Amino acid sequence: MREEEYKAELNSIAEAVYDRIKRALQSDGFVTEPHLREVGGSYLEHRGKCLRPALLTFCSRAVAESECDSLPAAAAVEMFHTGTLMHDDVIDHDDFRRGRPTAHVRGRLLAEKELPAEVDAAEYGSVLAILGGDYVFGAALDMLLRTQCAPEVLRSISRRMAGKLNAELLSGEQLDVRLSLTPWSAVTEETIMQMMRGKTGALLAYCAETGVAIGEGRPPEESSIAGKMSDFAHLCGLAFQMKDDLLGIFGDESKFGKPIGSDIREGKRTVLMLRALQNASNADTKSLLAVLGKKEANQEEIENARAIVTRTGAEKAVADLSEAYVNQALAILEKNLPAGNPKAYLRQWALSMVARSV
After folding, report:
1. pTM for the model
2. Domain containing residue 49: CATH number
3. Distance in angstroms (rounded) separating the CA atoms of residues 353 and 204
4. DSSP for 189-240?
5. H or E element: which one contains 96?
6. What is the pLDDT of residues 256-301, one digit of tens each?
7. 358 lies in a domain?
8. What distance in Å separates the CA atoms of residue 354 and residue 133, rounded to the nearest whole number?
9. Which has more pLDDT, 225 or 32?
10. Does residue 105 form part of some domain?
11. pLDDT score at 224
12. CA distance linking residue 128 with residue 86, whole number of Å
């Protein structure tokens, strides 16, 4: 399959998903507080990559014996993902998302513009972003419940979103926070991988198994294919996160949408940085530890850290590891799904985990 054909299909899914989301939010009359509506919908004003809705849609089509409408579920996972981003940005103190101010920054700006001068605008913005994320989570579940499928399937995928998925994501996020407070000498690659499986892999796995469930017309826990595609998605999630960590240090800021080097200033615990520390000389280790977590690190210090990561071989090692995970995922795909366009789309989807600049 040509890449242009895949991108056209991905764009078609994204347009349908965001049209459904836009109409749902516009018709929602329950949230009457204007600041909450504005901040809660802020990340949904502009389309994301829609990788998760595409995964759900392709998995559904790959196993469906007849036409099925997975669009509400696809829109729901995009909304759910968006809610996690709003909370992540508060936790990580990020000021930009997709090249635009994050939710808590928008909330702060609203406070500075419309509230009394004595109000703590930053605190107001953080509170508003947390409430906005909660609002989007609820809207996501409401959207999921609009999926037209067998009652037992709808019951299962809804319970999984509200229960298993939510718990796995929160556990991954909490582990990420705990790792950020853990000395580098006590950080292990196994723990970082565990964090990535929860924070990144859980939602992708949910998308895959939900798509299969809708396509097959039976709950995911009753489907062997759903389990295999969940494994496929988890592997792709690991590859995606490792590529994301590489882009966070070596990417193009104008394309990536977030400040390059922010992971260094944050001292983010990644496999990339852990391997660099493990393989660095004593002098490079000292230099790297001095800048990791230094919020005011200048560009020269960031460039030096990047050079150390490359010099230690960590950049290449993590890129190779990311490729290896995708190849493992492709082997699962080849073995478990029938030939056809959906399978070809899933192959391109998996390859896009490592062949991306954003």
Report:
1. 0.93
2. 1.10.600.10
3. 12
4. HHHHHHHHIIIIIHHHHHHHHHHHHHHHTS-GGG-HHHHHHHHHHHHHHHHH
5. strand 96-97
6. 656 678 889 989 999 999 999 999 999 999 999 999 999 999 999 9
7. no
8. 28
9. 225
10. yes
11. 95
12. 10
